[in-house]
Amino acid sequence: MRSGELGSLPGIIGVVVIWTIFQSLDQQFLSPRNLSNLSMDIVGTGMIALGLVFVMLLGDMDLSVASVSGLTAAVFAVLNVNNGVPEWMAIVAAMVVGALIGAFQGFFAARIGVPAFVVTLAGLLAWNGLTLYVLGASGTINLPEQGVIHALTSYYFHDAAVAYGLAGLSVAAYFLTSYRDARRRRVAGVSAKPISVIAARTGAVALVAFAAAYVLNRFEGLSLALLIFLVFIVGLDFVLRRTFYGRKLFAIGGGAEAARRSGLNVVWLRISAFMVSGTLAAVGGLFLASRVAAVGQTAGSTILLINAVAAAVIGGVSLFGGRGKAWSVLLGMLVIQSIASGMVLLGIPTPMQSVITAGVLLAAVVLDSLSRHSQKAHGRA
Known about the structure:
The chain is mostly helical. The protein has helices at about 10-25, 30-55, 65-80, 85-110, 115-135, 150, 160-185, 195-215, 225-240, 245-255, 255-260, 265-290, 300-315, 325-345, 350-375; strands spanning about 140, 155, 220-225, 295. It has 15 helices and four strands. Strands 1-4 form a two-stranded antiparallel sheet. A two-stranded antiparallel sheet has the order 2-3.
């Protein structure tokens, strides 16, 4: 922290402060019902933000993710509802469209050399217009109640053992992974966390995990959407931190020219990151459509883009590249959605919600910038 590496600390403090304030203003804020709804509301935008992490680690930005989510959801709805295509085929088609859009934009940014900001800004306009064209004159397509997409945000595991079992599995996995890493570092002769620190952190994880399971079980239980979201986070965190591909992304974010000179295929890696962003935008779009059981002209709105970017930055992903985790999205989404949920309970008008969200985003960017300046001063950036 002295060298400017704040990590997820601002997000953690933000969640504590926000929950304390809103709970003092409205006793229903921390009720099991509201927290369960909160855990559901973070999934759609969170999936989109997960894809943004891959692009932001490179020091790039994808401004088209919200429009891509709307377009891919519209593609799914038209294929499945209007044309009778089997649901699984429509889902695959939507994800393929997202990946192709990512590849298209990544090609212009990585191979042609057009700034990613400009390419994806053009994409934001183009894909939003194409969404309106695909939806046609009706402008809205209602999704059937029977099907996988509808079940994404309507199915709950009512058995309490499921939530508690997931919490126990998570705690055990965290301890074993941390202990294994520390042991390997000691064998290699480098500094490692003492067992007391690992135990303390495991205790903190256990407290949060079992408290969350307890709260969820007091309402409907663990939702399928939240479970899928957590699986995505764990899987993508493994990809970023435990695979050669993820380490190459961090290397490019730390210095693209140095990465190129070391033999990395920077062009392909940048294109692949945009493909991941487009694919996860499609997944997020399907979750958002499931939440309202329809796809309309408002799908892929600008506020969705702002929330996705804010979630990543607030959670600790640097806008300058090279720093961030998949878990950052979960923390950032809790901050963003907690603000939205609290303001709804208090009856604060929608325009003011946008103002407050923008202020939180600005504060997160300022902290990120100050953190980078501090790291440069300590020779760590």
